[in-house]
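Exam review. A common question shows you a sequence with its structure tokens and asks you to describe the fold in words. Practice with the pair below. Do the first one on your own.
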Amino acid sequence: RPFMVWPQLVTRSVDVRLAQSGPMDIVTAGRYVDQVATALEFALERGILHRNLSAQCILLQLNGQAVVADFGVRGLAERLSDSAPSERFYGSIEACAPEQLAGGIVSPATDVYALGGVTYRLLTGRPLFEGSAPEMIIEQHLRAAPPSIDLGRTRFPSGLAQVLQRALAKDPQQRFARVGAFANAYQEVVTPNSATRIPFSDVPIGQGQLRVATAVPSGSVGAVVSSAPVGTVRPDGATSITATPDAPVGPSRPIGTAMPSGPAAPPWTTPTLLRGALALVLLMAVVFAGLFITGKGPFAGLGAATVKPVGSAEFVDNPAEAIGDSDALHVEVSKLGAPAAGSYYAVWMIDQRNERVTPIGKLVATGPQTYALQTEKIGSVQAGVNLIAAGDKLEVTEEHGAVQAPVGPVRLSGTFPPKTYIHIQHLLTRFPATPGNIGLVVGVLLQTRDLDAQAAILQNAFASHNALAVRCSAQSITDIIEGAQGGHYQPLPAACAAVNVTQAGDGFGLLGKSQNAGTGLSGYLDLAVDHASLAATQPDATAQIRLHAGHVETALANIKGWVTTADQDALALLSDPASVAASTDLLRVSDKAYHGNVGNSDQTINPTPAEGGGIIAYEHAQFMATLTLHAGS
């Protein structure tokens, strides 16, 4: 029985990427053009044409490398079909060359046309030709001039449209001879002075610099060729796999040939598609079932009851770095068996939207079937890298050897709920209206810290009876609390520097303008409350997120009361720098705003009314981001 084999990879197709994020910039598109061309050249040197290239069969891995799938699928479907040629399943027509559609001779230029069509879609987000019926699309491939990428847009470099027009020429003789030549021409327009790119060569593999794609990402620009080799099943259940060239050069079968009687039956009709899809599904089901039942292959052991590993990942600050970065992780896993000999468990943060991967470290055994992230790896990524911003998914994979991205099987993973993740990011990573776009609760943490420090400076100045220093510190505190738009904001006089008072906050304000000017412009505290509430009320919010969002709101309410009092005390000291009551009270409430308050007999500060301060608000915002890890991807 024939069957298909392909690597197990976590990917998304280019058409999904385009639907989610829109067209690519010319450099990113060029990177994928190079990778796809590498795969096609690799196959061509082995006598194989793709003949079915489209945005659906170019798959993007989480490390940004492309996988070109469906090599041989068109030929396999043709060989499996026992119906008339006109009824056979022929695959995608998104970028199908005219000669292929007309039943002419296929050649390497056929894949050039297909890659040109895919490149057009990468740059514009639209297929080369569109229509309400497949016949309309086929007719345009056969006769219509390809649309220019410059239509409606002017940001493409001069010459890029001409490169695409040549790749999409109706006559194969007028196209680039091979996909590598097309990729070279594209890059000569887009990145003409690149010092790192190795141009494609016409010299065959093994005799020159033509790049070979590999199945293991190694930092090169090559794509992985995901062929679909055809094999046979031996009586003993073992498999013998041999790649079958997919009719590399020669006449292709015509599409849309009339049946012996009645009107023409085009191959894209629903029954034909269903038959083709059903044949492939049944084919895979037979192989999977055989492997499952016999206990051989990658599905061995799936029928037995297993204990699935579980874990958690908490985002914390590296104690050796600045506060407010969420640049370290605590990961604990239980019920996880030992990795295979010579392998290890690696932890990664993955940005699924942009195909970026941030390596975190390795898990080490802490007991029977329990693992934790190596303590020396905490903060091992670049200092200050906010790991919550680095990705929306955490993966634990089993790896062998040194790898720069996850290539082994995924053992555990956890993903932020997407709607809630937006507001967690606003709290902990970035908010568009703040200075430096810092997160709202991060702003609360940093400004209450500065407030507490400035109150201590004021207390020293008061004890030394330095009226100028008291007034400077009081104005500094007012500026930190109210922000640059506050009703009592004043830039610090030059004389304040002489008494070592220079801190005036970041200008955004803990209370913002609304406290004193009545304009409704919020500061860090009100906006942080809003987004903690929004996170808790999203439809995908978990019970854990709702719990800690409530704790954040409680701590922020405490802080608002304390800093409001501190602002009043500071204003009193500006009028009377000798006021003992205002000075004493200011030190007390500023300390509470940052450190919190021990409000009961347990001698701990909790996220409860009258206890939690800036530190507690920040910690529980990080608890909102805690990921629960489950088995698999």
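Now try the second one, then compare your answer with the model answer below.
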Amino acid sequence: MTGHRLFPAVCIFTICQCAYRPSVLAGQAAGDTIQAAGPVAHAVRADSAPSIDGRLNEDSWTAAPTLQDFVQHEPLEGAPPNERTEIRFLYDEDALYIGARLYDSDAAAIRLGENRRDANLQDADAILIVLDTYVDRQNAFVFGTTPVGIEYDGQVTKDGQGGLTTARRQQGGAGSGGGFNLNWDGSWEVATSIDDEGWSAEFRIPFSTLRYRGGGEQVWGMNASRVVRRLNEEVFWAPIPRQHALYRVSQAGTLEGLQTPGRRYVTFTPYVLGSAHNDFVSLPRQNTVWTGEFGFDAKLGVTSSLNLDLTYNTDFAQVEADEQQVNLTRFSLFFPEKRPFFLENAGVFSVGTPRAGTDLGLDLFYSRRIGIGVAGDLVPIVAGGRLTGRAAGLTVGLLSIQTEQVGRHGIPANNYSVARLLKELPNRSQAGVMLVSRLNTDSTADYNLTFSADGRVGIGENINLDAYVSRTETPSLRGREHGLGFTGSYQTREWDVALQYREIGDNFNPEVGFLPRWGYRLFIERLQHNIRVPSVSWLREFRPHVVMRHFYDFDWFLETRYIHIDNATQFENGAFISTAVNLHREGLKAPFEIRDDIVIPEGSYDFTQAVIRFNSNESAAWSVNGTLTAGGFYSGHRKGVAGSVTNRIGSSWLAALTASYDDVDLAEGSFKATLFGLRLAYSFTPRMFVQSLVQYNRDTNRFSINARFGWLNTAGTGLYLVYNEIQHTVNPSGPVDRAFIIKYNRQFDLFR
């Protein structure tokens, strides 16, 4: 059996060069060429800044041109919307203002959604704006909100398609995933109001929050979408084929008429942190470890498009709290990056949650592990600098970090460097190379080198070809130190076809990245047919599909064969059901201990499982989802059930009861595993909330609780209180671990 490898990194150097399309638009600097495609919107200068109160009643809004020619993206692509949408753009010397009037013939049925920052917009009425400020048709900022006025923001990279990915059908434009980083939190304002004719939203986005080419006249890429949740309808301003999402910025429209400032900006964000921790297993019960820390992040605008981030004693509060949570369940958990220092132009450094457990888990740079040693020990960042943005036609990233010479538990710190050159070619294409190096601070005999080259070619609207090759070098690892892969995909409204080959050597060792499995050759084939049924009002789409995966070792021994035959059905109200048959083969070259005293002998095991997955309308007050599994499992059988029941009252209250149960009966022995969970969340306002997660693992007889309180200011800063506790329930009973953390940080705009 294989596991996963996670490695820390502390010094990165990245350079990206962009090649733009051949037509030139007014307002761009000499030498910058872009493609004028799609509809065109116009922004006008405001005589006076509108009040951000969610009501578009100032005279300045009436002077702005109205965008109202929206078309359906879902369910009837290209059809007129069922509800009218109007958007206007204003600006002054400080900020861009966006006003949206979202008419609704049944205002009482508006879905409010959760009242917290970055909540899932697919469960609510929503408005989303995409701003491609460099007009490179690859990257963009995203700003959105719901009728309760939440702040939803993120950054699009690589045309919303992510890295070296297998083709996947994208549903909607509000989620996060490949090509979209939801973790980025900008400093901006939004307010909303609801009336008998619908709802309205007002955005104020300071130019200091955005990055763009110099000051003066601007032309930006832009698109907008609206979700009417009760109709499960999504409309776009610039039409995009149904198989793609809103973040397909290569097919966005343009926004003209802006005059932006070229002045510098400086923000300073200090934090203070205090914590109390009791480890009742390894320390005396009365021994509470108290800690206190201080540090800061600073952001300096070198130019309007080039940003310098500085950090001192980088905040590890969330990292430490999250790492404790890994031990609360029997599952490995991966948390998103939220440390501000790493989030500026995040796509340059490929930050975010790795796609753990999938075929796409290879990530050559994973910032969430920076400062975490190989054994899980902390190696704190003392100071660092990070330069990202555009300069002389290049997309530039430079990151340098100083760690403690010795980690908190006596582990020597290492020095790392990464160089990357990325050139974006026309038509969603790109090519790049990466070099990673590491030297131990105590001995040059311990080092690591990683070389990688990748490329993507987009052919027409429907075909994408991806390929990469990579090699590592570590003195202690010799032999197969290579990785390579190829993916070809074809996507239309009706068909989704993909072929992939990947080969990862058993000594491939990317020490700054994430690697879920190694020592294999992998073949993947995928075929999906999307069938619309417009004659049935309550049915959206059938998606029959087949996915086959074959993992071989380098002796061509079949380690895993997985054939997934499924018919997924999407209903008009958002409900979903999938009925699948999975054909498995698992090959073991050595015995595998699946449970204490239960060992599966070496050999090849063929078995079949039936799986049903479902969810009801998740925007309703009550919703359910679940997975049922039954069938063979190695030398015996497995029955499993997992699911949750969720209650939403208005936009402030959410409660979800979850449970999972597995009953495994093997020739070598039997066992059961049960886990219960209760998630509670209440939002007083979009910026003040309490959350808790309570879990009970019947298998280990452990009870755990995580409780959080947040009182946020701009850009995700504010006051945080976190309480964690783990308890044994029997033999012996009593506490295992307890921690309390308090943190406060505040962003100061020194030039505002």
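Model answer, second protein: The helical segments are 59-62, 317-325, 346-349. The first strand starts at residue 5 and ends at 6. Full marks require stating both points clearly.
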